[in-house]
Amino acid sequence: MSFLKFNKSELVNLSYSLKREIILSNGTGAYCNTSIAMCNTRRYHGLLVVPLEQYGSDKFILLSSLDESLILSGRRFNLGIHCYGSTYDPKGHKYIIDFDADGAPAITYKIGEMVVKKELLFSDDSDTLMIRYTLVQAPDTVTMQIKPFLAYRNMHALTSKNDQVDSRYREVPGGIALRMYAGFPELHLQFSSPAKYSHFPAWSDGVTYSDEYRRGFDCKEDLWVPGAFFLDLKPGDSFVVSASISEIAPKTLKARFTRAAKKQGNINNMHDMLVRCAESLKVSRGGRKQICAGLSWMYTGLLRETLMSLPGLTLYATGDCDEFEEILDNLIEDEQERLFHRTTQVEAPLRLADVIGQYIAFAGEEERMWKKYGDTLKKVLESYLPGVRSEIAMHPNGLLWAQMDGVATSWMNAYVDGRPVTERAGYQVDTNSWWYNAICFALEMEARYGAKDSKFIPRWEGIRKLVEENFTKVFWMPERGYLSDYVDNDGVKPEVRPNMLIAAYVPYSPIDDEIKSSVLKTVEYELVTKRGIRTLSPRNVLYKGVYEGSQTERDLAYHNGCTRTELLAPYIDVFFRFYGKSFVKKAQWLVEGFIEDVPKHGVGCFSELYDGDPPHEPHGAISSACATAALLRCEYLINVHKLMKQ
Predict the structure, then answer these.
(1) Is the Cβ–Cβ distance between 293 and 625 less than 8 Å?
(2) ∠ CA 264-269-270 to the nearest 5 degrees?
(3) Helices of type H across 385-512
(4) d(CA 55, CA 239)
(5) According to the model, what pLDDT value does residue 412 have?
(6) On the CB side of 191, how many CA atoms lie within 13 Å of its CA?
(7) What mean pLDDT do residues 47-54 have?
(8) C-alpha distance from residue 366 to each of 350, 361, 371, 375, 446 (Å)
């Protein structure tokens, strides 16, 4: 069964194919991202995008695209496609007859009697994109022209025609090396087969990115075209072209491509797809492994997103416990400021207890894990006591109060015109749930494995009791049957949001089973969809069920209706605890439905968010670490409960 194939009628329809994107990454932080029609529609699109250490590891688009033309008997057929204003030129998409992404993304073009196959892969050991072309059939020898379009700019920016470009190039084995500007790395374009290079530098003016135009952003840029390569091909011939920031031996290119294709393997089921995505989101650069929050534009090494996705991308994907610890150790080393002193992600450090708990539940080693990470977690807890952090601190009732005027201090951190959409200043239900869970977990581990004369236990046992006594008093709304989202100086905020789910999910819950049951009924009735959990109930006047329109309109919907896949993990976990094996079918229905969407948005990937309204179209980052990790965890929980006796 092929999971990721499209038919000709879909591929030649630009309104269909331009909305579907491919993204490739090999775990170095570099990526290739474009539409399946090979037309760039976003400023983030490019064939070779690499992080540059000299610019703070920001990602820069070096090679925007490659335009191919086939020349037969004096006639030229252009396979490329660009948008210029409202015009597409050339229109190479009309020749596409097949797209297959079960292995290496492969596009097949048919022009009369000529058939060409194009396959894209990243090298498994460097920032190198490789494209293999095969002339499947042709009536005679064909000349292929390949013309590179260069950007050399930050992925968030756009570039314009200028006189600072260095138009020089130098010959390297099998190709050329060139750089548009000083201070940047050279781009090496090399071929496994003999290719003649013709240098005729020029600008391609007014390339337009349709997605940016639709959203009201700057959408036009000028790209630098240094020249073109020419290769003569007979039917059955194939060659590999590489784009890289380092020089490669051309004779190794075919073997490199074959090795990378074999390593990637084919997709046979949803789990294969999830594991492939998980691997692409783990970045190793400079000998340090981290997690990229999402491709293509999200950052690497973020505290909250790493803690949220770490178990899923390691333990539940491949069972690699060493990798789990390596990434966690790097995170702790890198995030000392946020973990122990200051962060607007006020609940993020407290998630460390849940992450360690998931490892223990998966692999055991309870004593070793506490001895390794216990002091870190205790130090995290100490940082929430009065006088340490300015953004959040414990009140005399044991609960945490978070407030920074004009700042969103929770994961709901969208802004419009510099002001947070959901500021949530005060007692946040989710933050205080993570707080109670972390305290209880630390107390239990310290009692088992800490020093006999530990001063931590008597001090923190009193705080635990305070939280336990006051959590329900502050958040529970018996007349409504659910928990307040947050409480400020004006009183309870009764919006139905998924943050209350955390109080039911955490292993050490601050609420009793009766309240849990009532909370879960509310979540089930108002927030659960077939594509994740809504961020706000549709009954609320602020609800926005579709993530479309201007930046302001999308930011207003981001946490006011859009669904989040990552919230399925705590939802399914707590429902299994309540209902056991009888919940397996519902959990499978929720998880397996995402397979319907893998041909959409990011082909073969799992999106950051979905519309709250049916048909729940995907949006945001096309490959999300948190979404991928959550689905891997849900799969794991389903498999565990399938094996359990009723």
Answers:
(1) yes
(2) 95
(3) 429-449, 456-475, 501-505
(4) 34
(5) 96
(6) 20
(7) 94
(8) 18, 9, 9, 14, 11
Q: Which band of pLDDT confidence, cut at 50, 70 and 90, is reported for residue 7?
A: confident
| 151's tokens | 């950007």
Categorize the per-residue pLDDT at 3 as very low, low, confident or very high, splitting at 50, 70 and 90: low
pLDDT for 411-461, tens place per residue? Answer: 999 999 999 999 999 999 999 999 999 999 999 999 999 988 889 999 999
Q: Name the DSSP letter for residue 217.
A: S
One-letter identity of residue 28: T
Which whole-number Å values give the CA distances from 141 to 92, 232, 241, 333, 365, in the listed order? Answer: 20, 7, 19, 58, 64
Task: Burial-class residue 462 by CB neighbours within 10 Å (0-12, 13-18, 19+).
Answer: exposed
636 or 26, higher pLDDT = 636
Token pair 């292993």: residue: 507
Q: Report CA 262 to chain centroid distance, whole Å.
A: 24
Q: What angle do CA 23, 29, 31 make, to 5 degrees?
A: 25
**Dihedral of alpha carbons 191, 194, 199, 203, sign:** negative
Q: What torsion, rounded to 10 degrees, do the Cα atoms 628, 631, 635, 641 define?
A: 140
C-beta neighbour count of 418 within 10 angstroms: 6
pTM exceeds 0.90: yes
Strand, coil or helix: what is 91? strand
Strand partners, 91: 81
Length of the chain, in residues: 646
pLDDT of 2 reads 56
User: Look-up: residue for tokens 């429902």?
Assistant: 575
Q: Is 527 left (phi over 0), alpha (psi -120 to 50) or beta?
A: alpha
For residue 1, pLDDT over 50 is answered with no
pLDDT digits (tens, 9 = 90+) for 309-365: 999 999 999 999 999 999 999 999 999 999 999 999 999 999 999 999 999 999 999
Nearest to 206 by CA among 170, 266, 160, 252: 160
For residue 29, pLDDT beyond 60: yes
Give me Rg for the CA atoms of the chain.
26
Q: Could you tell me the two tokens for 250?
A: 């051309």
Percent of the chain with pLDDT over 70: 99
Burial class (CB in 10 A: 0-12, 13-18, 19+), 286: exposed
3-class SS of residue 144: strand
C-alpha closest to that of 629 among 312, 320, 356: 312
| pLDDT tens per residue across span 180-221 | 999 999 999 999 999 999 999 999 999 999 999 988 889 999
Q: Which long-range contacts (CB under 8 A, 24 or more apart) does 44-47 make?
A: 44/155, 44/156, 44/296, 44/297, 45/21, 45/209, 45/296, 46/151, 46/155, 47/129, 47/243
Rounded-to-integer distance, Cα 424 and Cα 347, Å: 13
- Note the pLDDT of residue 123: 86
* Whether residue 296 has a cis bond before it, omega within 30° of 0: yes
pLDDT per residue as tens digits for the range 239-283: 999 999 999 999 999 999 999 988 887 888 899 999 999 999 999
If you search the block for the tokens 């309109």, which residue do you land on?
Answer: 553
DSSP state of 590: H
- Cα gap 124→248, rounded to integer Å: 13
Q: Which residues contact 15 (CB under 8 A, 6 or more apart)?
A: none
Bin 73: left if φ > 0, else alpha if -120 < ψ < 50, else beta.
left
Contact 99/11 with Cβ under 8 angstroms?
yes
**CA–CA separation, 496 vs 518, rounded Å?**
13
Strands 288-291 and 282-285, how do they pair? antiparallel
Distance of CA 390 to the CA centre of its chain: 31
